[in-house]
Each structure stands twice: as structure tokens, then as C-alpha cells.
Write a structure and sequence with these properties.
Blueprint: H1 18-44, E1 45-46, H2 50-77, H3 86-92, E2 103-104, H4 105-133, H5 135-156
Parallel strand pairs: 1-2
Helix pairs in contact: 1-2, 1-3, 1-4, 2-5, 4-5
Organism: Mycolicibacterium tusciae
GO molecular function: ferric iron binding; oxidoreductase activity, acting on metal ions
Protein name: DNA starvation/stationary phase protection protein
Amino acid sequence: MGTKRRTDTDVHGFQASAELSKNLQRVLVDLIELHLQGKQAHWNVVGTNFRDLHLQLDEVVDFAREASDTVAERMRALWAVPDGRSDTVTAGTTLPQFPPYEHSTDEVVDLITDRIYAAVDTLRDVHDAVDAEDPSTADILHQLIDGLEKLAWLIKSENRKV
């Protein structure tokens, strides 16, 4: 009458290819770096609208930290091995280095939005290859792109003049 019942040896979970693993690793290191740079900015921002920007930076940090955990756990669900060690993040991130010392709120707005957009560029760069292999994981990338672009817009608006 219909399909034959599977045996235990017939059941296998989806496993990420080397390419999918590599693409998700690229996203992971950028999100970890964004989390760290967001904290650096948070600690060293000074000037007009300090408190508002200080709190917005916490939102970026929280988003990036949660997103990196989501990506790493998705990798594990697909039998890939995430690598979030500091030397791996430093060697693999596409985000520009964050300058040391204090920075004005105007400077930090530009610095952090540039880094958010760098992370989004990585997400967009890997998206089509990820989608071709695993549309479910591509859905996660969509959510991350949407969230990061919204955060960038909210922060970038601090410096916008009309």
C-alpha cells in the first residue's frame, strides 16, 4: 500500500558539506568579532548622546552573541565543528580592526555601523551557496541579515542630518 517502513540503518541526518561548514564558519567568526568590537565601543564611547549609544551598543553585542550561538549550534546540528577560539576569530574575520582608546559618539556610530555592514556582507556573500545546500540554514541567515541591518539603520540614524 504505500511506502515501506524504514529500518534503523536507513535513517541518517543531514550533514553539512565542507563548503557549508566553511561558509558558516565565516559567518561565525564575524559575529564573534562583532560582539567583541561592540563591547570595545561600548566601554570607550564618550560625548553627546552617550547613554543612548551606550545602550544601543549593548543591543548589538547581545544580538551578535546570540547570533553566534545560533550559528554554532546550527553547525553542530549539521555535524560541523564550529571554531570560536580567539586566534581563529582574529585570523578569519572580515571586520576591520577596532581602534583603541576613547572615541566620540559620532565616531563610534560610523565605526560600529561599518562593522555591522561588514558582517552583513559576509552573510550575503555566503547566502546563495548555503541556500543551495540547506534552505533551512539560509532562513537563519535571512533573520540575521534583517536583524543586523535594522540595528545598523537605528545606530546610523544618530549621525544623520536632514
